[in-house]
Structures are given as C-alpha cells and as structure tokens.
Amino acid sequence: xRIFKDPETMQCWALEQRVAGQIIGxxxxxxxxxxxxxxxIKTATRECDIAVVSIFxxxxxxxxxEDFGRYPRDSDxxxxxxxxxxxxxxxxxxxxxxxxxDASVYVMENRLARNLCGASRQNxxxxxxxxxxxxxNIVQPHEAFFGQKDYQQAAIIRRMVCDLNFAIDxxxxxxxxxxxxxxxxxxxxxLSPDEHQRALALNRSLQxxxxxxxxxxxxxxxxxxxxxxxxxxxxxxxxxxxxxNGETLVAVSDVEMGNVILAAVYCGKTRLIDNCIV
Length: 278
Ligand code: PAF
Fold this sequence. Notes:
The structure is a single chain. With about 280 residues, the protein is α/β, with parallel strands linked by helices. The termini are far apart. The strands form two sheets. A six-stranded parallel sheet has the order 1-4-3-2-5-6, sandwiched between helices. It has two domains: about 1-175, HUPs (Rossmann fold), CATH 3.40.50; about 185-275, Pantoate-beta-alanine ligase, C-terminal domain (Pantoate--beta-alanine Ligase, Chain: A,domain 2, 2-Layer Sandwich), CATH 3.30.1300.10. The radius of gyration is 19 Å and the shape is globular. The chain has helices at about 5-20, 35-45, 75-85, 95-100, 115-120, 125-140, 150-165, 195-215, 220-235, and strands at about 1-5, 25-30, 50-55, 90, 145, 170-175, 235-245, 260-265, 270-275. Strand 8 and strand 9 (about 270-275) form a beta hairpin. Pantoate (PAF) binds next to strand 2 and helix 6.
C-alpha cells in the first residue's frame, strides 16, 4: 500500500495510472475509520482497479465552536485497516499542503446547502465542497464513494459534480448501523454509555415514522410530530426533523415514496444525524 502526503505527488501518480487505463475509485474520509467507511472501501476495492482512501480532517468544514480540535484521530489504526482491506493508496495530506495561506477560492453550493444541516452549520458545505473538489482534482478518480448517512452532503456533491462538469460517478452507499440500530459515525465515540442508549431513539423515531407512512399516514406534519415526541422523550435536543424531496431537498407536506426523512439532534454535546428514504 502506498501512502502519499504531498498533493502534487499524489496527482502525478494518479494521472500516470489514468494514462495506463486504470480505473481509480476514491473514498474520501476524515479518518477514525469504522464499518461504515469499510463498506465504501470494500466496494471501491472490488469495483475499481485502484482504491484510494483519503484521510484528512478538513478544517474548513468545521465552525468556530465545533469539534475540529477534538475530532477523533487514529492514523495508525486507519492505515492498518486500509492495508488489511486491500486499499492501494492512502492520501493523507497536512492542512498546510492542502490550503495555501492566501487561498481565496472556495466552492459554494447555493440552494441545497441552505436548509437542514446547512441552516445550523454555516459554511460547512462550502468547506466540504471545496475539499472534495480539491480531492477530485488531486486523486483524479473515475468514481467516488460516499455514505447515505450524510444524505445532504451526498446530494450537494452530486450537484457540484453536475454543475462543475467533473467526470466522476458519485456512488452513495446505504447507512451502516450498529447491532442496536445507531448509524455508525466517528462521533459516536463521544457518547457516554447512557447517551448511547438515548441516541438509539434517533433511528427508532425515523423507523416509527417510516412504518406510520406505510400504514397510510402521509401528512408530513403528523410524521414529524411523532419523531419529535420520541426524541424529546429521550431528552435529545432537536436541531431539525424534516421530510424532503430526495433531489431538491425541499420540504414536502404530503409524503410520497422516494422522499427522505431526516433528523439531527444533540445528545449531550454530540451532534448526531440520521435519515431514511421512504
Ligand atoms: O463525510 C466526510 O467524512 C467529510 O465530509 C468528507 C466528505 C471526507 C470531506 O471532508
């Protein structure tokens, strides 16, 4: 397994591989890998000639009061995991190699990024779009793999790829959950055992709404209220509960197949998100 830290070296190597006809798959991550990342990595290694995993805790997607400083990091563990799962290349740059001191160009999506997580995390998606665009240029992938847990992120990246003409196939793979139903996230490590138990209400509440929908209830207001009640009963602080069109992310009032139910909560100090497609 090769490890590149320098963006230019990574890019030159990737361009050579493309010329040699190799299909490159990229799994962008912020490290502290778990089974959710592994499902993306396994698909990339199976379906592409070269699987590249990027590991970079991207400072520009964290707000000033967010957890950039304490975001969990474990480079050694991540590298072992990548090696064991047949990853060909790990790209792990330092922040100053990724961002020039005087950088002044950022990528901003102006419609899908406004609501849901974008409403409470100002500039978050601009940070995501900017780093993902840079990773696309550096790693030169034919395919890039993302998790459905970050539904809004995936929708925005698809939009960016379309609007900026990146010739990259965006693959979004299903949410991976623990045995207890909690969607896997590097941030789950912050949860105390009691918080972890309470956090299970997030998936449970979405499942309950999903079942209500299939039992004939299609009023978004009723479904959202059922979710709110369950979350509040567990003492989770709600950031948002929303049901949206899966492409435009516009809130719906009458729920249809293909719509997406999303929620974000604070469990103690930890912000958790989850969603389900009906
Ligand atoms: O989903 C993530 O882990 C990050 O937002 C990403 C896509 C790696 C960009 O930093």
